[in-house]
């Protein structure tokens, strides 16, 4: 692994004020002597091919007239071309999740992304979890159609016929006579968050990126960018873990970095010390291409970063739309217009589907959707409905509601699924749902449970697995009773969750499971047509408590080690690996094999523990046995 010593020539105290006002010579990456590179980047575009309003929804006539629309491929093209005209050396990269989120994806299944990315001149892309939403076949069609490399070092798709040979760990871009290495990485939670199928494996991110960096270094590449779909916190951890990286261009967490926006989560770039003491520049760019990320970096002959500056370019109405690109967008949009325009009913209140609400608590859109699920399945005897907040992709303002509005909120095409659980399993499912919700920066917050037919309270300060403090089921007369751990309840969810998506493994073993149908969006459309005008309220279905767990109400005691060889049980979190846990709990990074062995031994006697086939692979949500002497019985 190479060793580099950085000599930064910027004045950190002035960067926040000056970065957007640098002269052209500095903006094109030529600060000082050496090789200047301008990195343009997007992430989590989510099929926002056309311009959108502040909530990510289709712009209406009033918003267009008021110049209150943002983004769209035509503005990305204009901004990118302006930078290319002034920057001697530039690259345009995307950090994944081009798929899913608007009617363009529903109609074209990635074809819109392929066409727009070609027109805009992208040079490399990482794979995001949503690229797998319609399975390997849809992603494979996209990969075969694009002319640029799509990279992920930690995806092993060799056993999947639709993807074998199409995903490379890295690529080398020739820019201005220099070699730029671009290494991809994808969140290991993709098999939970999406639908990659059983043949696609997601390996440890740090180890996979490290191996790719070693190959690039061996090939003489000394300027390396990690193009990741991991999330801002995980990007920072990757920077600390892998030597040899210069820049990380990330996505997944929809995090805005900026030196001028008060709402930003951190500076652009965020500078992180690597394991060898070198500095790594971490950037990410919110979502939807509301802005175009721009980072100017100067390298010396040894590939050492000697200067940097940057700031996202806001793509508001001050950025003209490229005419040729917008004409093509309009052509793609034409078949969608009739669908978008069909009014199916109305809402007398705003239907809040914002991720900041629905992934952390009760929201009106979640109540509407779960009410529709319960209504649609009432003839099947369904009593409870649970859906994931992450499946809610937009809000709807009060007023007329169209088919297009509903499809924008629920773009995944998931089917309603029904099955039976006992009360203890319902509580277990809710525990999974709130397991990440104490911190907005966590991975997996999309699993947060929106519900109908029950109400629950949770405490984010309690340990994972013990956060649900009460669960009550709604009776036929509208009253509520504590859930019975032994009673059987018929539940409606969606087919993604029924098969274990978003960590709902307890649903996989549910009894009498059936993908009842129809699609979730169709059920919501029918519900709105039937009960219009709709006016869901936040009514206490989900409450947050600071009280200790109330075991008598739920009938479920907090988990405790059930094997004498375990000092404690540990539930695997995002970006855990056994060596890291060995150092944390046993004080020895090489003692990972003890956790591996103890967990498999415990699993032989108790199925709650994970059965591990490979010490290099653990999955989020698995229960591990941390070995050691158990306390003597009283």
Model description:
The protein is an alpha/beta fold. The protein has 3 domains: 296 residues, 4-Layer Sandwich (Purple Acid Phosphatase, chain A, domain 2); 213 residues, 5'-Nucleotidase, C-terminal domain (5'-nucleotidase,  domain 2, Alpha-Beta Complex); 62 residues, Roll (Membrane-bound Lytic Murein Transglycosylase D, Chain A). The protein contains 21 helices and 28 strands. The strands form 7 sheets. Strands 1, 2, 3, 4, 13, 14 and 15 form a 7-stranded mixed beta sheet that branches. Strands 6-7-9-10-12-11 form a 6-stranded mixed beta sheet, with helices on one face. The longest helix is centred in the middle third of the chain and has 19 residues. It is globular.
Supply the CATH superfamily name of the largest domain. Metallo-dependent phosphatases
Assembly state of the chains shown:
single chain
Largest β sheet strand count, sense and barrel closure:
7 strands, mixed
Strand content: 15-25%
Low-confidence stretches: 1-31, 549-560, 629-634
Fraction of helical residues = 25-40%
Beta-strand segment tally: 28
Q: In one word, what is the shape?
A: globular
Distance from first to last alpha carbon? 54 Å
Mean pLDDT: 88
Query: What is the structural class?
Result: alpha/beta
CATH class category of the largest domain? Alpha Beta
CATH architecture descriptor name of the largest domain: 4-Layer Sandwich
CATH topology name of the largest domain, in short, is Purple Acid Phosphatase, chain A, domain 2
């Amino acid at each position: 692994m190479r060793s580099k010593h950085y000599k930064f020539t910027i004045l950190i105290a002035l960067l926040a004020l000056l970065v957007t006002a640098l002269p052209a010579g500095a903006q094109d990456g030529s600060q000082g002597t050496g090789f200047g590179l301008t990195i343009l980047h997007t992430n989590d575009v989510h099929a926002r091919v056309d311009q959108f309003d502040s909530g990510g929804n289709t712009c209406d006539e009033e918003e267009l007239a008021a110049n209150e629309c943002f983004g769209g491929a035509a503005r990305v093209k204009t901004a990118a071309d302006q930078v290319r005209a002034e920057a001697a050396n530039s690259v345009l990269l995307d950090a994944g999740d081009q798929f899913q989120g608007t009617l363009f994806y529903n109609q074209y299944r990635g074809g819109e992304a392929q066409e727009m990315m070609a027109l805009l001149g992208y040079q490399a892309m990482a794979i995001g979890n949503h690229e797998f939403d319609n399975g390997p076949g849809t992603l494979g069609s996209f990969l075969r159609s694009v002319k640029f490399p799509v990279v992920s070092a930690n995806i092993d798709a060799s056993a999947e016929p639709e993807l074998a040979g199409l995903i490379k760990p890295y690529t080398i871009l020739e820019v201005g006579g220099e070699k730029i290495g671009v290494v991809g990485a994808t969140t290991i939670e993709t098999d939970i968050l999406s639908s990659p199928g059983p043949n696609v494996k997601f390996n440890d991110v740090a180890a996979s990126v490290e191996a790719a960096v070693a190959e690039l270094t061996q090939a003489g590449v000394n300027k390396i960018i990690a193009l990741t779909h991991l999330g801002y916190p995980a990007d920072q951890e990757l920077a600390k873990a892998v030597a040899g990286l210069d820049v990380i261009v990330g996505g997944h967490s929809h995090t805005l970095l900026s030196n001028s926006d008060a709402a930003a989560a951190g500076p652009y770039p965020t500078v992180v010390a690597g394991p060898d003491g070198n500095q790594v520049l971490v950037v990410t760019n919110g979502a939807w291409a509301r802005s175009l990320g721009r980072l100017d970096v100067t390298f010396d002959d040894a590939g050492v970063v000697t200067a940097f500056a940057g700031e996202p370019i806001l793509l508001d109405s001050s950025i003209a739309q490229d005419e040729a690109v917008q004409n093509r967008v309009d052509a793609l949009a034409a078949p969608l217009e009739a669908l978008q325009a069909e009014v199916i009913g109305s809402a007398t209140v705003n239907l809040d589907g914002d991720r900041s609400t629905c992934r952390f608590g009760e929201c009106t859109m979640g109540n509407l959707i779960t009410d529709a699920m319960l209504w649609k399945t009432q003839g099947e005897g369904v009593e409870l409905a649970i859906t994931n907040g992450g499946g809610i992709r937009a809000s709807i303002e009060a007023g007329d509601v169209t088919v297009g509005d509903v499809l924008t909120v629920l773009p995944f095409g998931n089917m309603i699924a029904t099955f039976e659980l006992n009360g203890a399993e319902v509580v277990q499912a809710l525990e999974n749902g709130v397991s990440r919700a104490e911190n907005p920066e966590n991975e997996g917050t999309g699993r947060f449970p929106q519900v109908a037919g029950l109400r629950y309270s949770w405490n984010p300060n309690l340990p994972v697995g013990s956060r649900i403090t009460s669960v009550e089921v709604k009776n036929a007369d509208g009253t509520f009773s504590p859930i019975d751990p032994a009673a059987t309840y018929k539940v409606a969810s969606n087919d993604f969750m029924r098969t274990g998506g978003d960590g709902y493994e307890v649903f996989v073993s549910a009894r009498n499971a059936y993908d009842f149908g129809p699609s979730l969006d169709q059920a919501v459309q029918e519900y709105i047509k039937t009960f219009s005008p709709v006016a869901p309220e936040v009514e206490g279905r989900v409450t947050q408590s600071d009280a200790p767990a109330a075991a008598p109400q739920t009938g479920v005691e907090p988990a405790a080690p059930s094997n004498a060889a375990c000092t404690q049980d540990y539930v695997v979190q995002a970006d855990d690996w056994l060596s890291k846990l060995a150092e944390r709990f046993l004080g020895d990074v090489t003692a990972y094999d003890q956790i591996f062995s103890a967990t498999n031994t415990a699993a032989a006697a108790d199925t709650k523990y994970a059965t591990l086939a490979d010490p290099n692979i653990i999955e989020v949500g698995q229960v591990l046995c941390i070995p050691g002497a158990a306390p003597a019985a009283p």
